[in-house]
Design a protein that fits this description.
Elements lengths: L2 E5 L4 H5 L6 E11 L1 H9 L12 E4 L3 E5 L2 E6 L12 H6 L4 E4 L5 H9 L3 E4 L5 H7 E8 L8 E16 L6 H17 L1
Parallel strand pairs: 1-2, 2-3, 3-6, 6-7
Antiparallel strand pairs: 2-9, 4-5, 7-9, 8-9
C-alpha cells in the first residue's frame, strides 16, 4: 500500500501509478454528481456545462444552504455508486479519470476503468463530517432545478483518505473481498 497526494485534473501517468489498496488524497477540484445529473447528461443528452477531462467525480447529493448567489456547505457526504454503474462508460468517455463513492462499481465497470486508464476511489460511509471540512468551497453549481442532485464543482484540499478500490489494471478489491467471503462461507458449511 502506497500513499499518494494527487492534484486535479488527473493525468494518465498519475492514474497509472495508483494500485488497488493504495491510499489517495486529492487537492484541486472534484465534481459532485448523482442519479438525476447523470440522467440529464446521458439519457436526456443535455450538454455538460464543464470540461471533465482529467476530472474526479464524486457520487453525492450535498446538504447546502444558499447565501445570496452562493451555496455554502452544510454536509457533503458520499452516496452508493452501484446504482449509477450504467453511467460509467459515459463519464469515462468525457475524460473522467476517477470516480469516487461508496460500495464500488459492478464488474463491467472494472473492465471499462482498465480500458480507459481510470480508477474508482472508495470512501468509508459515515465520514460526511470530515469530507465537508476538506471541501474549501463550492465554486460552481449547474442545473439547480435538480437540487440537491445538481452538478457541483468543489474546491478541495487534502480530500481523503480514499482507497483505490478498482485500479486501471483491472484489479477490483470489492470483487476480491466478495470472493474471499464466499469461500469462507463455503468452508463454514462443511
Amino acid at each position: 500500500m502506497t500513499e499518494h497526494l494527487v492534484t486535479t485534473p488527473l493525468t494518465e501517468d498519475a492514474v497509472m501509478e495508483l494500485h488497488a489498496g493504495d491510499i489517495v488524497t486529492i487537492t484541486g477540484h472534484i465534481f459532485g454528481l448523482r442519479d438525476a445529473t447523470l440522467i440529464r447528461m446521458f439519457d436526456q443528452g443535455e450538454a455538460i456545462p464543464s470540461d471533465l477531462m482529467g476530472a474526479v467525480c464524486l457520487h453525492t447529493a450535498p446538504g447546502v444552504r444558499k447565501e445570496g448567489d452562493h451555496y455554502v456547505k452544510v454536509s457533503i457526504g458520499t452516496t452508493t455508486s452501484t446504482r449509477m454503474n450504467r453511467f460509467t462508460a459515459g463519464l469515462l468517455g468525457k475524460g473522467v479519470k476517477a470516480i469516487a463513492g461508496k460500495g464500488g462499481l459492478l464488474e463491467d465497470s472494472t473492465r471499462l476503468l482498465a480500458e480507459n486508464h481510470a480508477v474508482y476511489l472508495g470512501l468509508v460511509g459515515g465520514t460526511a463530517a470530515s469530507e465537508t471540512m476538506q471541501i474549501e468551497d463550492i465554486e460552481e453549481v449547474w442545473w439547480s432545478d435538480l437540487m440537491p442532485e445538481c452538478l457541483w464543482k468543489f474546491r478541495v484540499r487534502d480530500f481523503g483518505p480514499l482507497i483505490v478500490g478498482i485500479d486501471a489494471y483491472g484489479r477490483n478489491l470489492y470483487l476480491e473481498t466478495k470472493a474471499k467471503a464466499l469461500e469462507a462461507t463455503k468452508r463454514l458449511r462443511l
